[in-house]
Amino acid sequence: MRGVYENPIGSGIWWVHYYGAGKRHREKVGRKSDAIKLYQSRKADVAAGRKLPELRNSKVVSLSELIDDVLEFVAHHKDNRSYTSKGEIVRKALGSKPAADLTPQELERWLRTRCKTPATANRYRAFIWLPRHSHECGTVHLQALRAL
């Protein structure tokens, strides 16, 4: 059945995997029969628009926290001064928002009001996308910016 899988294979531990409200959900269940029932229940909840359970390890990460991680990551970069100034400008405008709640449309709206040229907008986009790349160094939560 789609959305129900055993992990690791042969262990007897079954998981469900589904999408709801644009987010990926995975839950460890146990027996296969229980996993099938839970999967059907969760899919019915999604279709009916009912609230799904919160992810267990989900921490609300603000954009300001991600900016701090980026600035730490680029501390020895030759263009550190530019990153620092961009970080403070973005922090002032959007820093208090949870990073997962920042939509691409909201970011584009902010860039249109802030940037006079496409080149400047591209520099801010590159700064905001930097946390995705710095995640490889273990400094940032990649999940937080998945919506961007």
Condensed summary:
This protein has 148 residues and is an alpha+beta fold. It has 5 helices and 3 strands.
DSSP strand (E) fraction? 5-15%
Mean pLDDT: 80
Main beta sheet strand tally, sense and closure: 3 strands, antiparallel
How much helix is in the residues?
40-55%
Q: Biggest sheet, strands in spatial order?
A: 1-2-3
Whole-number tally of structural domains: 2
Tell me the number of helical segments per DSSP (H or I, 4 or more residues long). Answer: 5
Low-confidence stretches: 133-148
Question: How many beta strands in the DSSP annotation?
Answer: 3
Distance between the termini: 31 Å
Describe the structure.
The protein has 148 residues and is an alpha+beta fold. The two termini are 31 Å apart. It has helices spanning 32-48, 63-73, 80-94, 104-114, 118-134; strands spanning 4-6, 14-20, 23-30. The chain is built from five helices and three strands, in the order βββααααα. The protein folds into two domains: 4-48; 63-145. The chain has a three-stranded antiparallel sheet, with helices on one face. Helix 2 (63-73) crosses helix 5.
How are the secondary structure elements laid out?
Blueprint: E1 4-6, E2 14-20, E3 23-30, H1 32-48, H2 63-73, H3 80-94, H4 104-114, H5 118-134
Antiparallel strand pairs: 1-2, 2-3
Helix pairs in contact: 2-3, 2-5
Provide tags for this entry.
148 residues, alpha+beta, 2 domains, three-stranded antiparallel sheet, 3 strands
